[in-house]
From TrEMBL:
Lineage: Bacteria, Pseudomonadati, Pseudomonadota, Gammaproteobacteria, Nevskiales
UniProt-recorded Gene Ontology molecular function terms: aminopeptidase activity
Protein name: Predicted aminopeptidase
Keywords: Aminopeptidase, Hydrolase, Protease
Claim: Protease is one of the keywords in the record: yes
Top-level taxon in the UniProt lineage: Bacteria
Pfam family name, one: Aminopep
InterPro entries: Aminopept (IPR014553)
Length: 362
C-alpha cells in the first residue's frame, strides 16, 4: 500500500546513536544493542551474493541493480563513498525497526527523545514490535496521541556499514534505489535536533537523485508519474489538516472546545480524501488503509517531517547551479545556523519556490 511507504522509505532512527544515548534506561539500551548486533551479524557482501550462481536469481538481479546505483550515488550525486549498502542482511521479518511517534492531545509538537550523538528525535525506535507497542500504550495511558510505524530501512550515519535489508526487497526498483540515495544523504549531512530538516533534506536528495538516475537511462520511471502525483496530493491533504489543527490548538485552551475542533478537522480530512479519491482518482483506493484506524495528531507527524522543506531544498539546489557539492555546502551552512535563523532561511527558500511555481501557472 502506498501509505506504508510513508513509514518505510526514509532513514529514521540511528541505532548506534540511540544505543549510546540510552543511558537512562538499561533495558532499552540492551534491547537496542541486541537488535543492532543481530543486524550486523547477518551481513554478507553483496558482491559475494551476486557472483554466487547458487543464490536466488531474483535476489542477485536486484542486488546487481543496487551495486550500480551505489556507484552512481558516489560518482554523480557526490554521496559518501564507503561500505554502506555494499552488504546485505536478512532479518527474517517485515520491518527492521518500529518507531513510536507521540504528541500531546491538543498539539502537533512531537514528544522528543534526546540522545548525546543523534540529538533530539521526534520518535523512539525499537527492534521489537511488541516493545514499541508497549511503549506507545504507556504514552497513551498518560494522555498522549501515539502512532507505531514499521520501518524497513535506516541509517547509522556511517558509524557502521549499513546493509541493504531483506525488508527493502519487496519494493520497486525506483523505491529501493530512491531509499538508497535517501539513506546516504543522511550520512552526507545530519543536523542534531532538527528532524524536519534532516528528513526533508534526504527526501530532496532522494527525489532529485532518482530523477537524474532515470535521465541517465539506468532506470525506467514510466508509470511512476501518476502515483507520484497521487502521493503529492495526499500529502497536501495531510499538511492542510496539520496547519488547520495547529492554528486551532493555538486559539483555545478549552479542552471541550479543542476536542470538538479536533474531531471536526479529522472528519473534514476524511471527506476531502473521499472527494479526491472518487472525483479525481477514479476510485483509486490505495490510501484507504490510512483511514482504517482512528486518526490522531501523532499519525500526521511523519508527513510534515519528510515533506516540509523539500521545496526549500529544491530552490537551494537550483540557486547553486544544480551542483551537488555546492548544494551540500550551502545546506551544511544552513545546518550551522541557530534553529530560529535556520527556520527563517528555509521559509524564505520555500517562499521563493512558491513564487516561482505561481509565476509559471497560467
Amino acid at each position: 500500500m502506498p501509505v506504508s511507504g510513508r513509514w518505510c522509505r526514509a532513514a529514521l532512527a540511528t541505532a548506534l546513536a540511540l544505543a549510546l544515548g540510552a543511558c537512562s534506561s538499561a533495558g532499552y539500551y540492551l534491547h537496542l544493542a541486541r537488535g543492532q548486533y543481530q543486524l550486523l551479524s547477518s551481513r554478507e557482501p553483496i558482491a559475494a551474493i551476486v557472483s554466487d550462481p547458487g543464490r536466488d536469481p531474483q535476489l542477485r538481479t536486484r542486488l546487481t541493480r543496487v551495486q550500480h546505483a551505489r556507484r552512481y550515488a558516489v560518482d554523480a550525486l557526490d554521496l559518501p563513498d564507503n561500505d554502506s549498502y555494499t552488504v546485505y542482511a536478512d532479518v527474517h521479518r517485515d520491518y527492521v525497526v518500529w518507531n513510536v511517534f507521540a504528541t500531546p492531545a491538543y498539539s502537533l509538537d512531537a514528544v522528543e527523545n534526546c540522545f548525546p550523538i543523534a540529538g533530539c528525535l521526534s520518535y523512539r525506535g525499537f527492534y521489537d514490535e511488541r516493545a514499541a507497542r508497549d511503549h506507545a500504550a504507556q504514552l497513551a495511558a498518560r494522555g498522549y496521541d501515539t502512532e507505531v510505524g514499521g520501518v524497513a530501512a535506516y541509517s547509522t550515519l556511517g558509524w557502521f556499514d549499513d546493509p541493504v535489508i531483506n525488508t527493502m526487497m519487496r519494493w520497486s526498483d525506483a523505491h529501493l534505489i530512491g531509499t538508497l540515495f535517501h539513506e546516504l544523504a543522511h550520512q552526507r549531512l545530519f543536523v542534531k535536533n532538527d528532524t524536519a530538516f534532516n528528513e526533508s533534506f534526504a527526501s530532496f536528495v532522494e527525489q532529485q537523485g532518482l530523477q537524474q538516475y532515470a535521465a541517465s537511462g539506468a532506470i525506467d520511471l514510466q508509470g511512476q508519474a501518476e502515483q507520484a502525483a497521487r502521493e503529492s496530493a495526499f500529502v497536501a491533504l495531510i499538511l492542510q489538516t496539520r496547519q488547520q489543527l495547529a492554528a486551532s490548538y493555538r486559539s483555545s485552551r478549552d479542552p471541550v472546545a479543542l476536542a470538538a475542533i479536533k474531531q471536526q478537522a479529522f472528519e473534514q480530512l476524511q471527506a476531502r480524501y473521499r472527494q479526491l479519491r472518487d472525483a479525481q482518482w477514479n476510485g483509486y483506493a490505495g490510501y484507504d488503509r490510512f483511514f482504517e484506524r482512528p486518526l490522531n495528531n501523532a499519525r500526521l507527524l511523519p508527513f510534515g517531517l519528510y515533506d516540509q522543506w523539500v521545496p526549500a531544498f529544491a530552490t537551494l539546489f537550483a540557486e547553486h547551479g544544480r551542483d551537488w557539492a555546492a548544494f551540500y555546502a550551502a545546506a551544511a551552512e544552513l545546518g550551522k545556523l541557530a534553529p530560529a535563523a535556520r527556520q527563517a532561511q528555509l521559509q524564505a527558500l520555500a517562499a521563493r519556490a512558491s513564487a516561482k511555481t505561481a509565476a509559471v501557472v497560467p
